[in-house]
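Supplementary material to the annual report.
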Amino acid sequence: MQFQYYMPVRIVCGEDCVRKNHEMFAQFGRCALIVTGKSSAKNGALDDVKFALAQNGQGYAVYTDVPANPTVACVQAGAEEARRIRADFVVAIGGGSPMDAAKAIAVLARQNAEEGIFSHAIGEDVLPMLHIPTTAGTGSEVTQYSILTNDEKQTKTSISAPSLFPKIAFLDGKYMSSLSKEITVNTALDAVSHAAEGILSVRAGALSDVLARESLKIVFGEYPALLSGEFTSESRSNLLYGATLAGMVIANTGTTPVHGMGYSLTYFRGVPHGRANGLLLPAFLQECEKSVPERVRMICDALGMGTEAFSEKVAALLGDRERFSEEELRDYAHRASLNKNIKNCCVYFSEERLLAVLCRALGRRTR
Amino acid sequence: MQFQYYMPVRIVCGEDCVRKNHEMFAQFGRCALIVTGKSSAKNGALDDVKFALAQNGQGYAVYTDVPANPTVACVQAGAEEARRIRADFVVAIGGGSPMDAAKAIAVLARQNAEEGIFSHAIGEDVLPMLHIPTTAGTGSEVTQYSILTNDEKQTKTSISAPSLFPKIAFLDGKYMSSLSKEITVNTALDAVSHAAEGILSVRAGALSDVLARESLKIVFGEYPALLSGEFTSESRSNLLYGATLAGMVIANTGTTPVHGMGYSLTYFRGVPHGRANGLLLPAFLQECEKSVPERVRMICDALGMGTEAFSEKVAALLGDRERFSEEELRDYAHRASLNKNIKNCCVYFSEERLLAVLCRALGRRTR
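Predicted assembly:
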């Protein structure tokens, strides 16, 4: 038995947990920069945070200029704003984009990264962060990763450091109550992908496996809700908890070729991140099954079905697939082969094998 | 779904993990105080730590004056030694006693506790700690608790603070390879008790439940080895990993009346801590089953047996039981009723109900 495990975020889970635990905000200083997307906070989360800060007599500014798939420019502007208001801490509200942007903002508010954020060695001096997910998928609230759009390399690139773990993650499923079926499905598929990829990581260990299996069980246990688009508050809580578990997994294992391939779908064709993973995961698992059947069996046991059935169930969630030319797929396979998370998989994926997965997942299907 | 979860210790698990990861020691400073019991380190752990420190050019002193059930005097003397050598950090090697003593030493080396360690409000300024368990039971390597003998109150009292979490826990089952059957059984029963009590805590939550169920499965999965006293290196690793999981549980849930009652058995009669819990746990579970059958069922499902079968299996591990007079048991029930962990149980235990458990577990049996 050999593994390492580290996840220092305090998790506070429950209905109205932000309001009920407002005193937890007090220790972080006098003034917060709240980082959120234009629509991310229209679910009560921003009001709850304002309430919590007001209880403690803390000031704040709200920075909402975070687009989906956040850019370097947006995090630089956010850091500028944090410095301007002399923010002592950052509160992130949103899906993966605001939560990831907030991490980079927390770094750049305190550290000069003249060589560029992607080359910068991130130090310890980072504004403390409190993360409040409003989608159930990314797991960013419990990871040390921030995924940003990298226009130079035409992909999404992750920056990572122990100091990027938030101090607290507040989990409240009520913020997801008005999310569309589409976003709910896409983000759930992101979580499923995190858990499954974690089991296939070279860094998988006993503890990450436990969390991954539980995550798969819980998230895919909500399949009927995902298919129908009708979510009870219990479904919402389960999906959020399952996504956070999957975040705990990838905090320790990292991701694998599914993410490596998926970034091109998002960068070049605007496919939402979770959907990109969902499109690729079944074919990836079927490919892995040839090499590490016992690891894939662990995933299947947790899902309660084989890879074929899983593939069909995911297909039903995804609906019509985007079409890609053979040239596109060849290009994506090449780009993915250069991604660092290829080496993170317990199965070796050559460019050829990546192309096989891409073709199986995305090639020559009728729309 | 409502819970809080926090466990910031980095876990490094695997054979020779101390030697292989010696560079992890470097960041904590120039000089270590190694805290261990007189025999705790005679299993290779002390040599491995000395090797790791030497690789980094770090100095150290070894403090071995930690008795079983550590006293306030021993941690005060240890803190004195830490100050004398200007220790930058503490390395704890041993079972619960050295690991718990090391935490109190790390506090007292930096903080004046003139009002006494049990009344002292523990601040953030604590020497960083690296913990290396050499028994598989206490879980202290992943908790914020230090349990010390409290002669004033004639019991064991826990001190607790977020700053008492070690920075790193190194888990290597090889340090347990020469442990006696008796110590292995007693410490395993401590771990089982932690996991089961965690499920019956008022602070139990989805995440602690996952870890507790897995812990019960893994530790009690080693029942044949525990009964025969023949342990493979895989058994040792499993017992250690299971005990650490159970430590992660109680870091979040705390313990319950089993520990509350058990402290008297240890304080007044010298019953080893894990054995005390093992003596009490089955009767406690049978009592809880009347009030919260669904919680006890979760425990039984993980153990793979009902409370009656569990009681028999534990009895086979414990062998002959110590005898206690009715007067002793009445006294223990009264003392336990004053313990703070009584309120931490999802079942209310009056003094009368505590006595019923004590009598069922310990009363009127032939030796």
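The mean pLDDT of chain B is 96.
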